[in-house]
Design goal:
alpha/beta; TIM Barrel; nine-stranded parallel β-sheet; 14 helices; 40% helix; 11% strand; globular
């Protein structure tokens, strides 16, 4: 740590001892994690720099992409190795198990919104299979952590205008709801029952769905604790506040961040500013991260159990991200209460040397501020 960083830390500790709460500047550069998501960044090393020299100290790969050779390569680069784990978006499962498809308000299988196929969260066989895969990942590879991904209801929210159908009203979900909520639904058609759940019993229905999705997170945490307790459990999640899109993160997507905080170590919101209609306003990134910190009581100071490491958009997806924005985008993502930031996504950056250079400059500047 540089002398300036040591002095800042001493000041924080001193003031914290006097007031009980250490003050944090909104722009305080405390960014020990600077990551790349979405592939082995071989291009950086091929250019003559190690990942550490470039400014990277963490890489996220899809869980199915890990091999002993890739993990050894990352270790040789002296970076943290994390995995992304798909929870409720393994569409291939439906080919052999069509009963796992989410059911809509009309009582029929809900079409995949914009091609994003979700799975019914109460399907026992699917859940058991994902838990086995999660355990196998941690048993096989000595990775530093696993991030849950696609852990939400059947929906396409990763765009400026989200598509979020109401689901799942299959017989299995309706039986579970009635047993868990102690509510008996009348013996009427599925569309009629769905209408009741979205009106008369809406509060109970929303609470029940939140608990179902949160219980998956609890089981993932239990497996992590039993298998590789030193690994972090993170989650890539929707970046909206409780008010955005009429509270859809809770009511539609069934993402209860406060309940999941009992099990999660690192929250990684996905404030893709260009993709989500804020192409000219990178400050939207830091506003969403600040809201999350306030919401969960995370301040971005040393010693906190919960951390925020946003994943920000650098590659083009829908609206392009110009090179001139890269430094601001990464700094906005890295602002307190964040203590880390990662780039989305390497697969879209491999052939963009100007963007790669800009990422390196921004990361090295953040690293120099530690």
């Amino acid at each position: 740590m540089h002398l300036r960083g040591c002095l800042n830390l001493m000041l924080v500790l001193a003031l914290g001892g006097a007031t009980g709460r250490a003050p944090v500047r909104a722009d305080a550069p405390l960014v020990p994690v600077r990551g790349i998501y979405g592939g082995i960044p071989q291009e950086i090393v091929d250019s003559g720099r190690s990942l550490k020299e470039f400014g990277v100290d963490a890489v996220w790969l899809g869980s199915g992409s890990y091999t002993a050779e890739r993990l050894a390569w990352l270790r040789a680069q002296q970076v943290q190795a994390y995995a992304e784990f798909n929870t409720l978006h393994v569409a291939e499962y439906l080919k052999a198990h069509p009963d796992a498809a989410p059911v809509g308000t009309d009582g029929r299988v809900s079409p995949a919104p914009d091609g994003w196929q979700g799975i019914c969260p109460t399907h026992e066989g699917y859940r058991a299979g994902r838990m086995r895969a999660f355990r196998a990942l941690l048993e096989t590879f000595a990775i530093d952590g696993v991030w849950l991904d696609y852990h939400h209801s059947h929906a396409s929210w990763e765009q400026a205008e989200p598509n979020m159908p109401d689901t799942c009203f299959c017989d299995r979900c309706l039986r579970r709801f009635q047993a868990d909520a102690a509510i008996t639904l009348p013996q009427v058609s599925t569309p009629e029952r769905a209408a009741l759940l979205l009106s008369t019993h809406r509060s109970a229905w929303v609470r029940w769905r939140l608990k179902v999705f949160t219980d998956w997170v609890r089981e993932f945490r239990d497996i992590r604790d039993a298998t590789r307790p030193g690994a972090l459990l993170g989650t890539f999640h929707n970046p909206w506040s409780d008010d955005d899109f009429g509270g859809a993160r809770i009511d539609k997507l069934a993402i209860d961040l406060k309940a999941q905080a009992a099990y999660i170590d690192v929250f990684s919101p996905m404030p893709y500013h260009a993709r989500f209609g804020h192409a000219g306003d990178p400050a939207w990134i830091s506003r969403q991260v600040a809201w999350l910190g306030s919401y969960l009581g995370i301040r971005g100071v040393p010693g906190e159990r919960l951390r925020i490491w946003p994943i920000v958009q650098i590659s083009d997806w829908g609206e392009p991200v110009p090179v001139r924005q890269i430094d601001e985008v990464l700094r906005r993502g890295a602002r307190a209460p964040a203590t880390g930031v990662m780039v989305f996504a390497w697969g879209g950056l491999r052939k963009s040397p100007e963007k790669i250079d800009a990422i390196g400059r921004a990361f090295r500047a953040l690293a120099a501020s530690d």
